[in-house]
Design goal:
Mean pLDDT of chain A: 93
Distance between the termini of chain B: 20 Å
CATH architecture of the largest domain in chain A: Orthogonal Bundle
Shape of chain A: globular
Number of domains of chain B: 5
CATH topology of the largest domain in chain A: Fumarate Reductase Iron-sulfur Protein, Chain B, domain 2
Number of domains of chain A: 2
Strand order of the largest sheet of chain B: 10-7-6-18-29
Order of helices and strands of chain A: HHHHHHHH
CATH topology of the largest domain in chain B: FAD/NAD(P)-binding domain
Chains: A mainly alpha (129), B alpha/beta (661), C alpha/beta (258)
Number of helices of chain A: 8
Low-confidence stretches of chain B: none
Strand content of chain A: under 5%
Radius of gyration of chain B: 31 Å
CATH superfamily of the largest domain in chain A: Alpha-helical ferredoxin
Number of strands of chain A: 0
Oligomer: heterotrimer
Structural class of chain A: mainly alpha
Strand content of chain B: 25-35%
């Protein structure tokens, strides 16, 4: 119980997202381009953090499908900022031992000659700690 | 020396749970002048009041301190009790140990300490209290209603019905307000015009009601029972007593470029126009910004064709001054402009419209003659999507933080009417919650779903986009946990409502308070819902908060009842706590006159006898009927001549000393 | 008009045209751009977590250097622009971040977010003016061009303050001023898939596909962008339409492309 509380507090600090403001309108989820690739959708991230169902979120791959495109943040009428919360969940996973999703050694296999540096650096930043 | 009684109220546990009332009573007994102290569970109850009355009689009390809730709550109650026991009511003071102490503190020890200090200050004040006698002022037997929508009309009709004269000031050329623009009304689906226009006509024909249409309140001065109001009658450039409302001028006007306000700009009107067929008063008005005569000096076709010779291009605005005993504010609302919600595409796509625009499209007097045709290509829309809560319940700059209250019901109404009239149309509604508290309201909404097959989707719309000529609504279906895409022919936004922009300016003129959303604040949200905290100013309709027609009409009648109660009195008891100037100290500097917000202070030359020296001096005089006892002059006065009865400088210093002791 | 210029890593390697055409156009328009000496990678992507300090330090170094030079830092890569503007906003408005960054970098004078970060498009719109550019066009680009903004230029609008996030106009006005016909696609502000192109190319293909699809449906024969990653995704993960940098068309229109 204490762990959940601690993780919740940490997620709140990292993200600055105020989950209690959410009124459950689902505008974030309606705006999400990665919807089909997520098990849990942006409004569920908010609700699950708010209600302490953090284990399920940490065990899911959903956070790694987020594009941080900020459409949800832009449109949320309650200024909840779901994308920041999802990024905090992703970092919470990566900061655990063995949490990395992309290893530097894997990079040569997935890039091609045209891929911009920006893509590689960004992917490493987003998927590796 | 006063003989003071101190009465400590528990207010159930409201005070007693946080303040040690026994300790407070013990402390009171040691205060100078206190001869009696007691506590009781509910001081405001009949037996609590009896306790005070008995103590006044038994101990010969000359002053009373009640340690209880805010004086706004029960000062009048306790003063009445003191008066019935033979005391001057102004010999009683309240120490607020609830709102100022028990409700805002948790720790019993420190809250008790604070309560003792507050009690001590009140006792110190009562030691210096003197008996005060309230004066009387006459009541002008005429009311002013600002705003001529259904709220204003209903208030005016009820006031007139009770036998009093009443004026309506409406800034538009006609009364009727938003209700005149509606097609049907929920939950009965009766035609808005059919139930409104008889009331408009009744208002116009009632000899006790005067309608100042196309007019605005310019300034307000005075006080309850005796307001002086300047009204600007804007020039119509048409002689009101000559115009017959035949409409020939509007027909002949060659200018056709101006959006018709009544149909929200969806069709055009002439530079001279009559707002709509049932307008009251039915008079033409010239819009000088659109008129060729005003722009080029030529044309004048309207004047040539007017058989009544009513057109007068030289007509000027007129200012009239009237006196009123009471004022009803009924300034109403407007739907917000949804353009800032760029994702919904209102400013980009002609077939994304607001609900009020849909009302006009559905209305027989509307731009399409009541046939449901979409704006872009005048085709029958086969798939319609409604989006609720646009701009309501949000926190961003363009959002309103409140629920606009009427949208759930009017959206159900629209959906139902469309399905009734055009059964081949598919109708979907995106909603967050469906809020239908009201008599027959939820049944109405359920009828839309069950009988008319309206498709309600729990979720919001993320984006409306036009792809290759088709509007696509991207939304979420939270019950299915899915994203949905609907190709729509027409998208209707249920936009938030906000107070009319004239409200803030008016609130300043009336010194009436407003909340952060520019809704007028009521004197008490539960117990005085139609009165503004400013005496003599009453609230009617949406200017006080979002509400539908039934609620608006109830509130309008309630406000009228309050006005009638006020106007039925010949005299009002004035507040005796008014300023007065010590003529031996006054140096005639005018500082007080300048700060007085009520214009209550004048200067006169008067002969005074200053310790045997006779001379004529310029001195401040307070009109006690106009003074509201705000105390601004006492602070501004450099020589200490100005003082406020009931709140004298000595009394306040004694309170401060007691607090600092 | 003299400004500091931050090209970023990708412009030195995979997006050389974006950089080269920008320099040529700037010169033709009388804008003096001085490349910041010794700049480092901006961080590639902005991490939204408040406690991520280290990944934002190099951006602060660039911002601080620009403050000590002209005070205005011009960027053109949408990625760098997004990172620099947002880090700058953090320094300005987040005391927690500000204190830690300055404690770590120990600059001679604490950096407090004084630098103005400006995208080259903002410079063209607000300081040069599209009307002025129009006068200098020698080769009007007579094509139907779909501007593609992506996410990074526009969002979050509270920080980027670049254009209306749902109904942007700067690229459309740009297209008009170089003689093209702008084709407005409703997908112009949706994500191309961004960095997931590395971890899940099929995802990027799906997102980019929807964007190109909408540009094709609306009759475009060319897409322009300001972002090397968007350009890569739209071409590599879809490829039905050519995608070029807006600076390439600008240089061509001004007759300085070579």
């Amino acid at each position: 119980m204490n762990d959940i509380k601690k993780t919740t507090e940490q997620l709140a600090f990292m993200s600055g997202a105020v989950t209690s403001r959410c009124m459950g309108c689902g505008k974030c989820t309606a705006s999400c381009p990665a919807f089909d690739r997520m098990e849990y959708h942006p409004h569920q991230f908010v609700y699950m953090v708010e209600t302490g169902r953090i284990d399920k979120l940490l065990a899911s791959k959903s956070a790694f499908s987020c594009l941080t495109c900020f459409a949800c943040v832009e449109r949320c009428p309650r200024m909840v900022e779901p994308a920041r919360l999802i990024e905090a969940v992703r970092l919470a996973v990566e900061r655990q031992q063995g949490g990395n999703r992309l290893l530097p050694d894997d990079v040569p296999c997935v890039i091609d000659d045209d891929m911009p540096q920006q893509a590689v650096v960004a992917a490493l930043r987003k998927f590796t700690k | 020396m006063q003989k003071i009684g101190v009465f400590v109220c528990w207010c159930g546990s409201n005070i007693a749970a946080t303040v040690d009332v026994r300790k407070l009573v013990e402390a009171a007994k040691h205060e100078p002048g206190v001869v009696y102290a007691a506590d009781y569970q509910y001081m405001c109850s009949a037996s609590g009041q009896q306790l005070i009355k008995d103590a006044v009689a038994n101990y010969g009390l000359t002053g009373v301190v009640v340690c209880s809730c805010s004086p706004r709550m029960h000062e009048a109650t306790f003063r009445k009790a003191a008066q019935s026991a033979g005391l001057n009511p102004y010999m009683l003071e309240i120490a607020n140990i609830r709102e100022h102490c028990s409700w805002i503190h948790k720790d019993v020890e420190s809250a008790t300490e604070k309560a003792v200090i507050l009690m001590r200050a009140a006792v110190a004040k009562v030691n210096l209290n003197v008996s005060l006698t309230a004066g009387k002022s006459a009541v002008v037997k005429r009311a002013l209603v600002i705003g001529g929508g259904i709220a204003g009309i209903q208030s005016a009709l009820d006031i007139a019905e009770a036998g009093y004269n009443v004026d309506i000031v409406e800034k538009k050329p006609t009364i009727g307000g938003k209700m005149a623009q509606l097609d049907k009304t929920f939950p009965t689906l009766d035609c808005a015009a059919c139930i409104l226009t008889p009331k408009m006509v009744e208002a116009a024909s009632d000899e006790r009601i005067r309608i100042y249409s196309y007019s605005e309140v310019e300034s307000v001065s005075g006080f309850v029972g005796n307001f002086t109001v300047k009204i600007r009658k804007k020039s119509r450039f048409v002689e009101e007593d000559l115009c017959t409302g035949c409409g020939l001028c509007a027909e002949k006007c060659p200018s056709r470029k101006t959006g018709n306000e009544f149909n929200l700009g969806m069709d055009k009107r002439g530079a001279v126009y009559i707002p709509f067929a049932q307008a009251v008063p039915k008079l033409a008005v010239i819009d000088p910004a659109a008129c060729l005569h005003f722009k080029t000096g030529k044309c004048g076709l309207c004047a040539k064709n007017c058989q009544a010779k009513a057109i007068n291009f030289d007509k000027k605005d007129e200012i009239v001054e009237e006196k009123y005993g009471a004022i009803v504010v009924a300034t109403g609302f407007n739907p917000i402009d949804p353009s800032p919600f760029g994702e919904l595409g209102y400013s980009r796509y002609p077939d994304v419209i607001t609900s009020l625009e849909l009302e006009r499209i559905m209305n027989a007097a509307g731009p399409t003659g009541g046939v449901l045709l979409r704006p872009s290509d005048k085709a029958h829309p086969k798939k319609i999507v409604f989006v609720q809560c646009v701009g309501s319940r949000g926190l961003r700059g363009c959002d309103k933080p409140y629920c606009s209250k009427i949208c759930c019901m009017y959206t159900a109404k629209h959906a139902m009417l469309i399905r009734e009239k055009y059964p081949d149309t598919e109708v979907s509604v995106f909603y967050i919650d469906v809020r239908t508290p009201g008599k027959n309201f939820d049944e109405f909404y359920r009828r839309a779903v069950e009988q008319y097959g309206v498709h309600y989707i729990k979720g919001q719309v993320g984006k409306v986009a036009e792809n290759a000529g088709k509007l696509v609504v991207h939304g979420s279906d939270l019950i299915m946990n899915e994203q949905v895409e609907i190709e729509a022919d027409l998208v209707v936004l249920a936009v938030a409502i906000e107070p009319d922009e004239s409200a803030r300016k008016l609130a300043t003129m009336l010194t009436a308070s407003m909340d952060t959303n520019d809704f007028f604040t009521e004197a008490h949200p539960k117990l005085r819902p139609v009165e503004s905290p400013t005496a003599g100013v009453f609230l009617s309709g949406v200017c006080q908060g979002p509400k539908d027609i039934p609620e608006t009409v109830s509130q309008a009648s309630a406000a009228a009842a309050k006005v009638v109660g006020l106007l039925s009195k010949d005299q009002l008891t004035c507040n005796p706590c008014v300023a007065h100037s010590d003529e031996l100290l006054c140096n005639g500097c005018s500082a007080c006159e300048k700060v007085c917000p009520y214009g209550a202070i004048t200067y006169q030359d008067k002969e005074v006898n200053d310790h045997g020296k006779r001379e004529v001096r310029r001195l401040a005089f307070v009109n006690e009927a106009v003074c509201q006892g705000c105390g601004a002059c006492t602070v501004a006065c450099p020589s200490g001549a100005m003082d406020l009865k009931g709140f004298t400088n000595r009394q306040i210093m004694a309170e401060v000393d007691a607090i600092c002791r | 008009m003299k400004y500091d210029y931050y090209p970023g890593c990708t412009l030195k390697t995979k997006a050389k045209e974006l950089d080269r055409c920008l320099r040529a156009s700037a010169e033709a328009l009388g804008i003096q751009l001085e490349e910041l000496p010794e700049w480092q990678c901006c961080g590639g992507v902005y991490t939204t977590a408040r406690d991520e300090i280290a990944t934002k330090l190099s951006a602060v170094r660039a911002l601080s250097a620009a403050r000590d030079s002209t005070g205005t830092l011009v960027t053109v890569c949408a990625g760098c622009h997004n990172v620099l503007k947002r880090v700058n906003d953090d320094v300005k408005n987040d005391d927690y971040f500000n204190q830690r960054v300055n404690n770590y970098l120990l600059p001679e004078k604490p950096y407090l977010g004084e630098t103005r970060v400006v995208h080259f498009l903002e410079l063209l719109r607000d300081e040069v003016g599209f009307d002025e550019i129009k006068k200098r066009v020698v080769n009007p680009i007579g094509k139907k061009i779909a501007p593609y903004y992506g996410c990074l230029l526009l969002r979050p609008s509270s920080v980027m303050a670049f254009d209306d996030p749902e109904n942007p106009t700067v690229l459309e006005k740009f297209v008009e001023c170089i003689g093209g016909t702008p084709v407005v696609s409703p997908m112009r502000n949706e994500c191309c898939g961004a960095y997931t192109t590395v971890s899940d190319p099929s995802a990027a293909a799906e997102y980019s596909g929807k964007i190109v699809d909408s540009c094709v449906k609306n009759g475009a024969n060319l897409i322009i962008t300001a972002c090397p990653l968007c350009q890569y995704n739209l071409v590599k993960r879809d490829g039905r339409l050519p995608v070029v940098y807006f600076t390439e068309l600008l240089a061509e229109a001004l007759g300085v492309k070579e």
